[in-house]
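sorry for the late reply, my laptop died twice this morning and i had to redo everyting from scratch. anyway the thing you sent over, i finally got around to it. pasting the sequence first so we're on the same page, its 241 residues, then the predicted structure underneath. double check i copied it right bc i was rushing
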Amino acid sequence: VNFESWRDFSMHDEFNLDEAEFREERRWMDRQNQKIRKKYQDGERRRVLRLTETAERLDPRIRAEREEREAKKREEKERRARLKQEEEEAKRREAEEKQLKAQREQEEKAEKERQEREERKQKQQVAKGLRQRAKKAVQAKCTLSAVELDQLQEMCLALENEALEPLCERLEALPASKDKAAEAVLRELTDWKSRCEADKEQQARQREEARKREEQRASSEGGAGGAPWAAEELGLLAKGL
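ok and here's the structure:
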């Protein structure tokens, strides 16, 4: 305890410095007196310390102040613990939500893939039925060569279900005459080949146009970037300046 008293306890001195006969004796007397004063100073310090401890233990104001400090410490400790618990709870909820979201997305993806497989399977079944229907309609009305049958099969395989359905209706409505029916089937094959050729030409034109646009873009970017001048061009520029 850092305690300083205005009392110097000189009244307890054993020696009177004025009675000293020479300097060394005076110093010795002073040291003895200081030892005696220190003993009383220590006693005074212990007395004040006991008084302070008693006051802190019994004074209601000090006790209330100490209890208030302790209550504030407890509240602060509880607040920090509550904040930490809330933070951990929030992290736990966030982790659970992420896990649930990932699980839902995985389940949705699996369900979507299953539905797509079912749709493809159904579409394939429908397409198979339409191809068989077209083949039966042709075989019931006319006779085609093996090459023409292969071409018919190739056309049916290339067409989507939306195009196969009206094709089947047209083939089922073929004339009763075998020759006219065969001519109608061959026209269907010719029209399909023409459409295929037209589609190929259009795709080729689109690729060519895309290539030209890419070349123009590369050329414009190269010009905007400022290609290095040739030595002849630099010489002309110097003459002009």
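The mean pLDDT is 86.
thats about all i looked at so far, will dig more tmrw
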